[in-house]
Amino acid sequence: SEELAIASLGIDSRIVDALAKRGIVNLFPIQRAVFQPAMQGLDLIARAKTGTGKTLAFGIPILDNISREKSSMQFRPAGTPRAIILAPTRELAKQVENELVLAAPHLSVVCIYGGVSIEGQRRQLASSVEVVVGTPGRVIDMLERGDLRLNEVKFAILDEADQMLAVGFAEEVERIMQKLPLQRHTMLFSATMPSWIRNLTSKYLKNPTMIDLVGENEDKVAEGIKLYAVSTNDLAKNKLLADLLTVYAKGGKAIVFTKTKRDTDDVAAVMSRSIGCEALHGDISQYQREKTLSGFRDGRFNVLVATDVAARGLDIPNVDLIVHYEVPGDSETFVHRSGRTGRAGKKGTCILMYTLNQKRVLRTIESEVGCKFEAIGPPAAEDVLASSSDHASESIKSVHPDLAKLFLPAAQKLLEEQGVNALAAAMAHVSGVTQLPPKRSLLTYEEGYMTLQLTGGNLIDSSAVSSAVMQLSSKAGMSMGRVTMLSSSTATGGVFDLPEDLAKEILALQNVGSNVLTAVKVLPDLQEDYFQSSFSRGRSFGGGFRSGGSSYGGGSSYGNRGGSSFGGSSYGGSRTGSGYGSSYNSGGGYGRSEGSS
């Protein structure tokens, strides 16, 4: 509506025009809520969800005020900004700087942070500067050297203030706040309000206006982010991760979060054999960090594996998928991780990988954040191949016409010889698929197994299903995996795994009674216990014998997928082994077979 249009709010026309060039013509919710009190010069605390466009929330009022002030001012002494913006990480500081420069190119904005030579930043401060964005540690360095003076500051901003404490900047922040003029406008932005934040506001803000866009009972993850949870185990994770990226990222950008630097390196090393990806963590040099971020941002590779600290404040637009490779240690970390997608009103997807012993943590996150995960199973082979086909199609479309012309003679010859099969083969090659995918369990991701479904009126529990399978084939009954019952109110029965040869054998039976036996291509709705235990059972057999969970090694699910780099990304399965176990039952019963493998 008109009242939300930036052009109608009386903002400096240069800012309006600069934002319009980027397609920003209306205020997002956080910007609308902050705009009026900020323009009135009130101190404020804004509690907002991650990824809601808060940089411009404080940026627009500051830039507008300084722009008008500059028009009537002839000269500003070196190193005396009118606004100081503190950020917990260099990545966030650079992101804020970039947003402000794009919104007000007529103003001088300087970004100062550690990890790089201080001399270049000192030279920037030696000239007239309106806005300084920086990390607390480097700001202190500049103050002690005399290159930065805060006596002229009119606006003080603490962005993602709760993370200042998390990364150890609490003391530096207070030292900086003590050096600011008493007459100033202070704004604090934070997703959470720990005691340190409350103490800080009571000491350094004057009757602040509280703007809470989260609330105590609201989901703190930005709207538009779809949340999924998938059960796994440590041996299955890399193979599962590769297929999750293929199916859910849909060729777009994805960030995989790990807990430790070692995990980041290990996962990136395995994934990079078949997927275009790189690692980002605190031990990587600043030069390499910026090179990596630039490559990810520009689409030279589409998967970034990162630690939480390294990914704070990443200036990466249009991230389509977030994968929590490990369950976050707390709800705040989950919110900040997930906030890398679905930013500024856009859609996004977030997948949490968890093991059985992490189930309680998952439920705690749901309770504290106010969200709900949709439980999913591993992607079916057909879904992975379909996604690979879609990616290949987009890659082919992205080839420059002039380059394509060079291949026309050969393409024409292939079409004459093979017709449309030639294009299909080319798409398979582009996607990196070199062989037909092996059958694998949809319950455990174990290769060489098929997931079957048996339904019938008398199949009311797992024992009944096991008995029916045993009656069909004693060998199948002794080899079948743990039965998981359907949750559907319209059908009774269950799903289970069998070795591929046995599955084909019983599917081919003609006289199997009144039940219905089918090969499962997509997992039906299952009772909740599947998602708690499908990857963590031992292997028990009829007759009372039981062995520990078995482990299986293996190569890639689909051969050398991901060999192509067309379109800036390539996806494929990992080459790690996988380990699974299931519990088995046996008994008697009857069934009827339908369908085939």
Give the structure's gist in a few sentences:
With 597 residues, the chain is of the alpha/beta class. It is 38% helix and 16% strand.
Q: Could you list the spans in which at least 5 consecutive residues all have pLDDT below 50? A: 531-597
Largest sheet features: 7 strands, parallel
Fraction in beta strands: 15-25%
Shape: elongated
What is the CATH superfamily label of the domain at 2-212? P-loop containing nucleotide triphosphate hydrolases
Going by CATH, the architecture of the domain at 2-212 would be 3-Layer(aba) Sandwich
Under the CATH scheme, which class of the domain at 2-212?
Answer: Alpha Beta
User: What is the helix fraction of residues, given as a range?
Assistant: 25-40%
Q: Strand order across the biggest sheet?
A: 3-4-2-5-6-1-7
Rounded Rg: 29 Å
CATH topology of the domain at 2-212: Rossmann fold
The secondary structure category is: alpha/beta
InterPro entries: DD_DDX21-DDX50, DEAD/DEAH_box_helicase_dom, DEAD/DEAH_RhlB, DEAD_box_RNA_helicase, GUCT, Helicase_ATP-bd, Helicase_C-like, P-loop_NTPase
Catalytic activity: ATP + H2O = ADP + phosphate + H(+)
Domain Helicase C-terminal: 240-385
Organism: Selaginella moellendorffii
